């Protein structure tokens, strides 16, 4: 839910936010000067520099609201299940979902339609819900991978990813058509950071329980994406995205220690990618 809400908010807010920021800036600056040739460059510069920060704030607000709304919607059902377990100590069945006026689950195909079962959902039914929690990883594909035999391409990719991690070094991506563009790297980093935010919220909600996804794996993905950027654009891309993370630190409460530690770990991953940040 958090990933979907954040992604939808990010896609829909960018252009309206840019226009709104420009209009507000023009309104404020027009009170100081009437020379449009001075106002427009300032408006464009300020809008561009602050657009990404605004998008991050909107994405964060949308994600938190979605999680809060879902929790509120599920609270009565969770409470009913807890009371049923305490009183009856038998599996709880919510028969109201089978109301003929409801579209779901009646519209579901029979294999996926829930039925009263003391053991809960069947494995093939549970797989549908578990699939939403698995975010497909997009491994960095080297430019010369196509030269490998078809049966060895996957093996070569695994060996290439495992060797640098074991040696504590970052893989070096070749310059050329196989390298990531700055825009593609930003999008991959945005998804990784969004996943890290989700893990932080899950840990907070579960009172410190170990998260389902390993944070160190996501931090390694940050380095892998950075190493795959064309060497001529890598420093610029790394510094640009690291600035976003640095700005986020100002938004966090000093009491939220775990979230701060994760943000520091993200910054450290970017520091390792660029000498200009050291």
UniProtKB/TrEMBL annotation:
InterPro entries on file: CNOT1_dom_4 (IPR024557), Not1 (IPR040398)
UniProt protein name: CCR4-NOT transcription complex subunit 1 domain-containing protein
One GO term (biological process): nuclear-transcribed mRNA catabolic process, deadenylation-dependent decay
A GO CC annotation given for this chain: CCR4-NOT core complex
Organism: Aplanochytrium stocchinoi
Molecular function GO labels: molecular adaptor activity
Domain (CCR4-NOT transcription complex subunit) ranges: 1-85
């Amino acid at each position: 839910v958090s990933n979907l809400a954040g992604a939808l908010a990010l896609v829909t807010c960018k252009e309206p936010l840019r226009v709104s920021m420009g209009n507000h800036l023009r309104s404020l600056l027009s009170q100081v000067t009437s020379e449009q040739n001075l106002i427009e460059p300032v408006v464009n510069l300020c809008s561009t520099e602050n657009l990404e920060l605004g998008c991050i704030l909107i994405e964060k607000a949308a994600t938190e609201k979605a999680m809060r709304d879902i929790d509120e919607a599920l609270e009565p059902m969770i409470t009913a299940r807890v009371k049923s377990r305490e009183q009856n100590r038998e599996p709880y069945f919510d028969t109201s979902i089978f109301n003929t006026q409801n579209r779901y689950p009646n519209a579901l195909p029979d294999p996926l339609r829930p039925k009263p079962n003391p053991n809960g959902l069947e494995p093939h039914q549970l797989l549908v819900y578990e699939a939403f929690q698995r975010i497909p990883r997009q491994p960095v594909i080297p430019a010369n991978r196509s030269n490998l035999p078809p049966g060895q391409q996957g093996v070569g990719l695994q060996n290439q990813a495992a060797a640098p991690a074991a040696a504590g070094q970052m893989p070096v991506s070749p310059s050329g058509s196989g390298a990531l563009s700055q825009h593609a790297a930003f999008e991959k980093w945005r998804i990784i950071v969004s996943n890290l935010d989700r893990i932080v919220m899950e840990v907070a909600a579960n009172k410190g329980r170990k998260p389902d996804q390993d944070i160190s794996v996501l931090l390694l993905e940050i380095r892998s994406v950075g190493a795959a950027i064309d060497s001529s654009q890598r420093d610029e891309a790394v510094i640009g995205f690291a600035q976003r993370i640095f700005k986020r630190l100002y938004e966090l409460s000093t009491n939220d220690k775990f979230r701060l530690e994760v943000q520091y770990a993200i910054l450290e991953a970017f520091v390792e990618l660029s000498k200009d940040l050291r």
